[in-house]
UniProtKB/TrEMBL annotation:
It comes from Nitrincola lacisaponensis. One of its GO terms (biological process) is chemotaxis. It comes from the Bacteria. It is found in: Cytoplasm. The modification 4-aspartylphosphate is found at D58. The keyword Aminoacyl-tRNA synthetase does not apply. The active site is at S168, H194, D290. This is Protein-glutamate methylesterase/protein-glutamine glutaminase. The gene is cheB.
Length: 352
């Protein structure tokens, strides 16, 4: 007996996009478009009729925009949503708002030649739909944590400590919840989140407004300072290097690693080489295995290693792979990680 296909509802006001997505999705044996809607009003009835496993959702649509629809959906009938976003600064800001509202992931429309561009993304679109369909989705009320309780720092004496964080699907919200409670006197934090160009700068700017730490999109050859968070830019690997007595950032556009650039493994491997036992690694929600081998190298170099637990992950892929290698010191719920990181960094600092 054949396995049931993943049922997809496509919501987009563009007839061309609806046609292209239907063609792409239906070309995969395990996926099926059960209906298309030109706006959210029609989509509401189609959801009741077809009970899809996942939605693809555009933002700018007549009668009700995608964000308003998404907010209502996640409050009343939470279900997996894959956003279809524009590769622009404005598009990236709206997409991040959608992820805050509960969308699982997004695909970016090419700037030119949309038809050919989307077809090139066929396998990626299919993979993201599969991940979305299996992702853990909560109601809007359950998803939003209480206002963060800002934790107290310990007056860290050493500037040698650096925290390294990796994430993918579900990571934008996980990173926000991880960073917001942290005090301004934390050691430097370097983050690789799988995200395309144009999105990472907007992501960093949004986090900077929400956090006591100073959050920036990483640039090449910048001194790494306590109290700062450095986000890997889309389409560039981020590494830590040493220049004399200082830690510095390094960016490169080398080959994809685990199909990603930026790659968590690239960041974590550099942490093992350069920071050694002065590093602390955190692996958060995400599909795939990126970061597992890098975390293994960090552990072997003496670093503390932490992972987000399955229950609090949107997708328990990357943490699961690292845990399976036996290289994670502690597995914790997302909201317990900030305080534990402070304790761990303080313990290590006290031993210096």
């Amino acid at each position: 007996m054949a396995e049931a296909k993943i049922k997809v509802l496509v919501i987009d006001d563009s007839a061309l996009i609806r046609h292209l997505l239907t063609e792409i999705i239906n070309s995969h044996d395990d996926l099926q478009v059960v209906a298309c809607a030109p706006d959210p009003i029609i989509a509401r009835d189609l959801i009741k009729l077809h009970n899809p496993d996942v939605l693809t959702l555009d933002v700018e649509m007549p009668r009700m925009d995608g964000l308003e629809f998404l907010e209502r959906l996640m409050r009343l009938r939470p279900m997996p949503v894959l956003m279809v976003s524009s590769l622009t600064e404005a598009g990236s800001d709206v997409t991040l708002k959608a992820l805050e509202l509960g969308a699982v992931d997004f695909i970016a429309k090419p700037k030119v030649d949309i038809a050919a561009g989307l077809k090139r993304y066929s396998d990626l679109i299919a993979e993201k739909l599969r991940v979305c369909a299996a992702a853990k989705v909560c109601s809007r009320q359950r998803m939003m944590p209480a206002a963060p309780r800002h934790l107290l720092g310990k007056g860290y004496a050493s500037t040698e400590k650096v925290i390294f964080v990796g994430a993918s699907t579900g990571g934008t919200e996980a990173i926000r919840r991880f960073l917001q409670p942290l005090p301004a006197d934390m050691p430097a934090i370097m983050i690789t989140q799988h995200m395309p160009e144009h999105f990472t700068r907007t992501f960093a700017e949004r986090l900077d407004k929400l956090c006591t730490l100073h959050v920036v999109e990483a640039q090449h050859n910048t001194r790494i300072l306590p109290g700062h968070v450095y986000i890997a830019p889309g389409n560039a690997h981020l590494e830590i290097v040493r220049s004399g007595a200082n830690y510095m950032t390094a960016l490169n556009e080398g080959p994809l690693v685990n199909r990603h650039r930026p790659s968590v493994d690239v960041l974590f491997l550099s942490a093992a080489r350069v920071a050694g036992a002065n590093a602390l690694g955190v692996i958060l929600t995400g599909m795939g295995k990126d970061g597992a081998l890098g975390m293994k190298a960090m552990k072997e170099a003496g670093a503390v290693t932490l992972a987000q637990d399955e229950q609090s992950c949107v997708v328990f892929g990357m943490p699961k792979e690292a845990i399976a290698l036996g290289v994670v010191d502690e597995v914790l719920p997302l909201d317990a990680l900030p305080e534990r990181v402070i304790e761990r960094v303080g313990q290590r600092t006290n031993r210096v």
